[in-house]
Specification:
Largest sheet of chain A: none
Number of domains of chain A: 1
Shape of chain A: globular
Helix content of chain A: 55-70%
Radius of gyration of chain B: 30 Å
Mean pLDDT of chain A: 91
Strand order of the largest sheet of chain B: 1-2
Largest interface: A-B, 85 and 70 residues
Mean pLDDT of chain B: 90
Low-confidence stretches of chain A: 240-244
Number of strands of chain B: 3
CATH class of chain A: Mainly Alpha
CATH topology of chain A: Cytochrome Bc1 Complex, Chain C
Shape of chain B: elongated
Number of strands of chain A: 1
Low-confidence stretches of chain B: none
Order of helices and strands of chain A: HHHEHHHHHHHH
Structural class of chain A: mainly alpha
Oligomer: heterodimer
Helix content of chain B: 40-55%
Largest sheet of chain B: 2 strands, antiparallel
Chain lengths: ~240, ~170
């Protein structure tokens, strides 16, 4: 057989310096190659055939992850044009929408991805419930999933305030007003959340820091653990072959 | 016997024994056999991923994200609604004491979800063998959906009932 273009590139000096591994032919070699790959190692090497189809998962996990990546990419773009202060925030959004290349479009992507991610994560949870996939040995991964849902809601909620328009301001006012009803420490919780008696510049800064720094880092870590446990639990599942 | 020895996989075949395989019958049904994640699963994930991305990009071309006038602490809009995923709680808040609807209930929902795999010890995975769990969860899901839809689309000024075709107050 004639070597393909990829094979020829791999043969060159530069190619050999990038692709360390020899060609993988046998199942064992292919499995080893999977393990050795940085990007693939969060995935299991093999899964049961029934897990492949749309009906099994509706692909809601990977859909949630895709939306999250879309949110990171669009969110970083938005950060270049945004200062979290009541005097600048609203003007920044207007400038973004009218004068920044693709500004309105990227903001739309961020907004709609955010709403869709909340829907996708909730649907993912419901699908996992009905499939009974929270049962042993996967109990704790379900718990991490609940944490991920809460984090997703918090991400969405903190981001909601940032445009500093009437919609944002009053939605957050309503949402945070509930904190005051927490027994015994209601006032303190409210103070911690808002940085004052009402939604103000301190709140905007707090929500911004939570939204772009703290929550995303925690969310990424939780996702990584979620995927890692998904891989590990797969081999513990009595439903599947214990192989490779 | 001047015949050349038959070579299979680098080994000489000495004879063929009739009957069942020595390791026994195949017990694992086809749907449970293991397949490689690359390419079988990853190709499907790539397609799902690109499909969603395409959908988001298309929606973003057609619909603009809302931006109202600048925040004004002096002027409260009527109705003032929480983001859609909290609007179900807000709907309950109009019926129940805020302590119950705003603190106790969300707390119980999160605790209940966390505790679910430890409460439900039934090893069965098919819906028809776990009626209690499925019914409880479905009931909860329907109630939550109903509260969210009512709060989002059926509530107007002063949180009064407004049919969606008479006035629209839901915002994303």
């Amino acid at each position: 057989m004639k070597p393909t273009v990829t094979e020829r590139v791999k043969e060159t000096t530069v190619g050999r310096s990038i692709f360390r591994v020899p060609d993988r032919q046998t199942p064992r070699e292919r499995a080893e190659g999977h393990w050795a790959n940085f990007f693939l190692h969060l995935y299991p090497v093999k899964i049961r055939r029934e897990e492949l189809g749309f009906r099994y998962s509706w692909y809601l996990g990977v859909i949630s992850l895709t939306l999250f990546v879309s949110l990171i990419v669009s969110g970083v773009y938005l950060m270049f044009f945004y200062v979290p202060s009541p005097t600048t925030a609203y003007g920044n959004i207007q400038f973004l929408q009218t004068s920044v290349p693709f500004g309105q479009f990227i903001r739309n992507v961020h907004r709609w991805s955010a709403h869709l991610m909340v829907v996708a994560v909730m649907a993912h949870m419901a699908k996992v419930f009905y499939r009974g996939a929270y049962k042993p040995p996967r109990e704790f991964n379900w718990v991490i999933g609940v944490v991920l849902l809460v984090l997703t809601l918090l991400m969405s909620f903190t981001g909601y305030l940032l445009p500093w328009d009437q919609l944002a301001y009053w939605a957050i006012t309503v949402g945070t007003s509930l904190a005051a009803y927490v027994p015994f420490v209601g006032k303190q919780v409210s103070q911690l959340l808002l940085g004052g008696p009402q939604v103000s510049s301190a709140t905007l800064l707090r929500f911004y820091v939570l939204h772009v720094a703290m929550l995303p880092v925690i969310l990424v870590m939780a996702i990584v653990i979620h995927l890692w446990r998904w891989r590990k639990d797969g081999t513990l599942d009595p439903g599947g072959e214990l192989d490779v | 016997m001047s015949e050349e020895p038959r070579i299979v996989d680098g080994s000489r075949v000495l004879g063929v024994v009739p009957g069942k395989p020595a390791v026994g019958e195949e017990k694992i049904p086809a749907r449970q056999r293991l397949v490689f994640v690359w390419p079988h699963l990853l190709v499907r994930h790539a397609v799902a991923s690109l499909g969603v991305l395409l959908f988001v990009l298309a929606v973003s071309l057609v619909f603009d994200a809302p931006l109202r006038e600048i925040a004004n602490p002096m002027s409260t809009p009527n109705p003032e609604k929480a983001p859609w995923y909290f609007v179900g709680l807000q709907e309950l808040l109009s019926h129940l004491h805020p302590m119950i609807a705003g603190v106790l209930l969300p707390g119980l929902i999160v605790i209940g979800l966390v505790a679910l795999p430890y409460i439900d010890r039934n090893p069965q995975k098919r819906a028809r063998y776990r009626k209690v769990a499925v019914w409880t969860f479905t009931l909860f899901l329907v109630a939550w959906l109903a509260a969210t839809i009512i709060g989002f689309a059926f509530r107007g000024p002063d949180w009064t009932w407004v049919w969606p075709w008479n006035g629209w107050y839901g915002e994303l």
